[in-house]
Amino acid sequence: MPVVRLRAPLSELAGGNRALELDGATVADVLKSLEREHPGTRGWILDERGHIREHINVFVNKDYGREDTSVTSTDCLHVIPAISGG
Question: How far apart are CA 52 and CA 50, in angstroms?
Answer without folding.
Answer: 7
